[in-house]
Write a structure and sequence with these properties.
- This protein has about 60 residues and is of the alpha+beta class.
- The chain has one domain: 2-Layer Sandwich (Alpha-Beta Plaits), CATH 3.30.70.20.
- A hairpin with a 5-residue loop joins strand 2 and strand 3.
Length: about 60
């Protein structure tokens, strides 16, 4: 799977992606999710985060 991208304009900062896939996503200082630098890209984990994002802010 390609590196996921978080659309900062859509992200509402709910943190669900960080709960579902904490090795790949973290909350930034701006309150929006971001991809962890150098993260091991776990396909299943990333897809779960994409599927569960309530505003569709994550893509790959």
């Amino acid at each position: 799977m390609a590196k996921p991208v978080v659309d900062k304009d859509l992200c509402v900062g709910c943190g669900l992606c960080t709960q579902v896939c904490s090795d790949v996503f973290e909350m930034g200082s701006d309150g929006a999710a971001k991809v962890v630098a150098g993260a091991d890209l776990d396909d299943d984990c990333i897809q779960d985060a994409i599927d569960q994002c309530p505003v569709g802010a994550i893509s790959n």
